[in-house]
Amino acid sequence: MPESHPASDRPIRWGILATGGIARKFAADLLLDGHLVAAVGSRSAESAAAFAREFGIARAHGSYADLVADPDVDIVYVASPHTFHEEHGALALEAGKHVLIEKPITVNAAQARRLAALAADRGLLLMEAMWTRYLPHVQRIREVIAAATIGTVTGFLANHSQNLTTDPAHRINALELGGGALLDLGIYPISFAAGLFGKPTTVQALGSLGATGADTHVSVVLQYDGGAIASTYSTSRSRGPNTAAILGTDGRIEMSSVWYAPSETRVFDGRNRLVETFDWAVAGRGMQFQAREAEQLIRSGRIESGILTPAACIDIMETLDEVRRQIGVRYPGAD
Ligand SMILES: NC(=O)c1ccc[n+]([C@@H]2O[C@H](COP(=O)([O-])OP(=O)(O)OC[C@H]3O[C@@H](n4cnc5c(N)ncnc54)[C@H](OP(=O)(O)O)[C@@H]3O)[C@@H](O)[C@H]2O)c1
């Protein structure tokens, strides 16, 4: 087994678990940003081989077990559907590998707690791939807020809505794959609100369910200690404006469409004057920033990111569990 915290003179070696839509996008960003993708694993040897060929990856494994056992992999990126995140994350951790797991980290808080305990027990990195948190404009937003440029932050308004397929078998609609607008889309503004305010004291949600029982529309209002309120809206049935605003006592920050991806951000003072605009060009989709953070943490021997800790992920999953309870979405065997 390789040492878990390699010295800084050799590249960190990534293993990609699953060959679906987001695995392709992340692999492209990793390569664009100069990271080393050492191996890919799929349930099918053919899919693994095709993925490896397309991205120039040295080793293709026809099972996830073989991927995590690869001695030349340091960190496994888990890109399977939500309902498999705990199982596949645990598979990698048990094999001594650090993990970056697609969002949501698991389908419920109980699973997230188990995974976090396992990672802590093994002394291995556990990160959720909530890539928005690591983007340059979001890093700058944290600095602007810390400098109190907009005073005390008291509100957050955001939406994340896409016009996605109504195919009942697609994972966005399939309950057995953790389907629904909340866990695919709504998690973005809810996670962002958690980054601003922490854990809510009150959660109130309304949702509409589609034919399969997965939520197609979900609106959530969260209240925090001190009175701050976040209001979020997501649907998988219409493309939305996908903008967000952070409101403070002395100004506001407006995040342009698409706010959770690299986008233009403007800071206004309390008299509605524009005081700062940031709009950095980002190569690719922008998923590389979470990879840079993961590599830095591994090199420095740390097992969690201060930007989004496993404990914060558990809190977010608790909020999502409560939203699901209120809107009546239950996942078979994972409630
Ligand atoms: N960060 C983002 O922007 C973003 C965007 C989209 C999705 N995601 C997240 O990424 C995860 C995967 O989403 P995706 O859109 O990539 O899904 P996808 O295109 O359906 O791919 C999922 C992959 O998971 C593997 N898999 C293992 N067991 C499976 C099963 N029972 N049914 C279907 N696939 C199975 C398959 O890979 P093999 O056949 O190779 O084993 C499949 O290609 C989700 O948790 C989602 O929330 C994140």
Summarize the structure.
The protein has helices at 21-32, 45-55, 64-69, 85-94, 109-122, 136-146, 181-197, 288-299, 310-327, and strands spanning 13-17, 36-41, 59-61, 75-78, 98-101, 126-128, 153-161, 202-209, 215-223, 229-235, 244-248, 251-255, 265-269, 274-278. With 335 residues, the protein is an alpha/beta fold. Bound molecules: NADP nicotinamide-adenine-dinucleotide phosphate.
Can you give a write-up of this model?
The protein has 2 domains: 13-129 and 288-304, 3-Layer(aba) Sandwich (Rossmann fold), CATH 3.40.50.720; 136-276 and 316-327, Dihydrodipicolinate Reductase, domain 2 (2-Layer Sandwich), CATH 3.30.360. 33% of the residues lie in helices and 23% in strands. It has helices at 21-32, 45-55, 64-69, 85-94, 109-122, 136-146, 181-197, 288-299, 310-327; strands at residues 13-17, 36-41, 59-61, 75-78, 98-101, 126-128, 153-161, 202-209, 215-223, 229-235, 244-248, 251-255, 265-269, 274-278. The strands form 2 sheets. Strands 8-9-10-7-11-12-13-14 form an 8-stranded mixed beta sheet, covered by helices on one side. Strand 5, helix 5 and strand 6 form a beta-alpha-beta unit. NADP nicotinamide-adenine-dinucleotide phosphate is lined by residues 18-23, 42-44, 47, 79-82, 84, 102-103, 129, 131, 171, 184. Residues 18-23, 42-44, 47, 79-82, 84, 102-103, 129, 131, 171, 184 line the site of NADP nicotinamide-adenine-dinucleotide phosphate.
